[in-house]
Specification:
The chain has a 6-stranded mixed sheet, with helices on one face. Strands 7-8-9-10-13-14 form a 6-stranded mixed sheet. The protein is globular, with a radius of gyration of 18 Å. The chain is an alpha/beta fold. Helix 5 packs antiparallel against helix 6. 34% of the residues lie in helices and 26% in strands.
Length: 253
Amino acid sequence: MRVEIIKCLQDNYSYIIVDEKNQIACVVDPSEARPIINFVEKKKIHLKYILNTHHHYDHVGGNLELKEKTQCKIIGAEIDKKRIPGIDIYLKDKEIFFLGSSKFIAIETPGHTVGHICFYFDCDNILFSGDTLFALGCGRLFEGTPKQMWSSLKFIKNLPNETLIYCGHEYTESNSKFAISLLPDDKDLEKKKNKIKSLRKKGIPTIPTTIGEEKRFNPFLKVDDEEFLEKVDLKNMEENMVFEKIRKLKDIF
């Protein structure tokens, strides 16, 4: 299984997953069709599926054109089936789906939207997190509650540390600045911020990240970390309230 990062729109990432053994592919969250079509035609790969994490236009905008062009099938959450254009296959929470020689588990992760799902390729240690978890950040709460989002993030946090995270946007540099604002004395975080800045100057994606890296540096995965809570003066609060507080700070940052 190979993952190709496809830049779309202004700061979106779509991902083409290639089963090299069978020369078939699927694409995660095609915000626009043309970059995907260009890639699969150039590589002579058959696009078999679209995987949608949620219904927002910048994740499904290429669905119908790609489906018409390639006759691929569109996969999404059963709970969100009325809002995903062209959907063919509906998956429930923890349902397993096979893609050639690979497989993934559909994980319901409400918060950013109520119908958001992630795609976890457990045998490959890869998670496509959409707009639930970003490198050093998490999605805004457009539909879900802080409790829902924190529950979703806790599930992701408990995946193996080596799990690669492919998220929906290149927000890492901005997220690193917010993380530093909370922990200005963290020298390792400062080094990470500088590395991210260097990558972005060169136009290099900061994705993928890993669960281990996010547990170390992402403030949204630290709301149950007593040392972090003491540093940001948020001790003796419920985890959901801590998460809500940090999310609101990021919203106005």
